[in-house]
Design brief:
Largest sheet: 6 strands, antiparallel
GO biological process, one term: asparagine biosynthetic process
Pfam family, one: GATase_7
Distance between the termini: 20 Å
Mean pLDDT: 83
CATH topology of one domain: Glutamine Phosphoribosylpyrophosphate, subunit 1, domain 1
Radius of gyration: 24 Å
GO molecular function: asparagine synthase (glutamine-hydrolyzing) activity
Low-confidence stretches: 520-586
CATH superfamily of one domain: Aminohydrolase, N-terminal nucleophile (Ntn) domain
Protein name: Glutamine amidotransferase type-2 domain-containing protein
Number of strands: 21
CATH architecture of one domain: 4-Layer Sandwich
Structural class: alpha+beta
Strand content: 15-25%
Strand order of the largest sheet: 1-2-21-10-9-11
CATH class of one domain: Alpha Beta
Keywords: Amino-acid biosynthesis, Asparagine biosynthesis, Glutamine amidotransferase
Number of helices: 17
Shape: globular
Oligomer: single chain
Amino acid sequence: MCARHRDLLQRRGPDSSKELKQQSGSVYLTCFSTVLALRGDHTVIQPVQHSDYPDSFLCWNGEAWKYDSTPILGNDSEIVFASVSRLFANCAVSSSPSSIMQDALSHITGPYAFAYFDSKSDTLFFGRDPLGRRSLMYRVDENGSFTLSTISDSTEKGWEEVEADGIYSLNLGSFHESMQQKESSKPTCIPYLHSPNTVVSSASTHDTSASPLITSSPSVLKIEDLLRRSLDLRISNIPSHSQAVSSQIPASLAVLFSGGLDCTLLARLSHDTLDPSQPIDLLNVAFENPRVHRRPANTDSDGPWSPFELCPDRITGRASFAELQTTCPSRTWRFVAINVPYQEFLAHRAEVISLIHPHNTEMDLSIASALYFASRGQGVVLSENQEATSYTSEARVLLSGLGADELFGGYTRHDTAFRRHGFTGLLEELNLDVERLGKRNLGRDDRVLSNWARETRFPFLDEDLVSWAVNAPVWKRCGFGEDQTTLDSETGTLEPAKKVLRCLAWKLGMKNVAAEKKRAVGSVVDYFYQFTDNFYRFNSALVQPKWKSANRKEHTLSHKIMYKQSMQQVTEEGLWYPHTSYLQPHLPFLVSLSSGL
């Protein structure tokens, strides 16, 4: 393992690190793990081992919130290792090792990527949770050696993401035989027993007798209960790791905060869960765009002026921050204005590109840049007398609203799908979005967000919440197709996108947030079409899209071609600038297998 790769892992887990080397037959296993301690009253060094299960080990990058539906209060990695190892030790000789691992993981609720070596069967198991909420990658080099890691070294070719479609296994005996024959040994995959995003039954034919969504609707009360339970698991017992870098009371929790419906709703519900004495940091990013952000002609040339305050997310962020202060005045809400000058973005651009590897499109870089600077947590806060003070959040746990748009119809294309194909088309689009979350977003985002030794948690991607949402009738999630003649006088004015969440925000006193206009953009076409004038300038090396073309198919093709262009093909002349939207490891690790031929 090169020094660069080791450094990447240690950034993610500064609390401990350990290297393990062992031999199994003619195969050599090398494992390096680092730990970001967020569970229990002590740091559990990884790889996890125990004398009762000699030569077996676990690398666990995740959070097991529950085992057999019972909340885990202590350190989860110890419990997972003991539970899995016990099942292997007590299994019948005729039992399939893969089936044992499949059964063991079916009892776990929470996000994870893992590697477990069972010495009894001489097999390495690895995988990601069914939603793909943690990063895991693999690489086979020119000599046939096999490497797993939560983060890749982008200077090495061949890294690919492990699919979140099941449990993979690699028998070391078979691996050695394949290398002797100079053949590649492919891991086998056994599907998960169940996945929270599996649709059991979800009606696509509209129930004409269904009432429009209001604050007292059963689905609004249900989603409130599910969100409260999800947050209780994720933020109730965050350990303190204050480094005393600020004179202010340190926050243990921060929210990736654009001021939109999803993140503000999480902040509002977190207020009801977190200890009243704990401040909550609201991390809000704004980028300087030198082409767009110029001092208006009607302002005093000598007076204070900030281009960052013109950014859409800064405007909505401050408005929602004010509403949180009004609704929950007893809480210390700390709005952290993270201002990114253009030159600073350019200075970090190469690092972000490296972190998102093997993703390599302009859109990947755009999204990742916002997450990169947000999770760094360095910005300014205003004192009571409105003096700006430099501030770095100490929160190790971040909350993200990722998943709300996919589950509750928040993208422009959801509206389009409904208008074109009714509830059937809308439902198909929603189900597709949830299915591809792990492949599109979550692994990439995890690699970026965890770079600053913080862990991001996704309350909307709680298994129970996802399972309820994907199986609920679509009109219980959003307000498309509601009978306009029967709408409530107040909530009837709310947009149909994510209406169940809008009604909940209204119920909780956040009426301005509930009425916020839809800004989520979910397709490549809509993304570039809406934001190119403000955030992009392309040079002649890229295909020029026909933005104003009346023929949608024509400019769709242009967008798709552009989307496939890798960032390496964009020269310095073709300046790129990110849109500040929030999309979105705890125990990073690397496991390498090589054979002594």
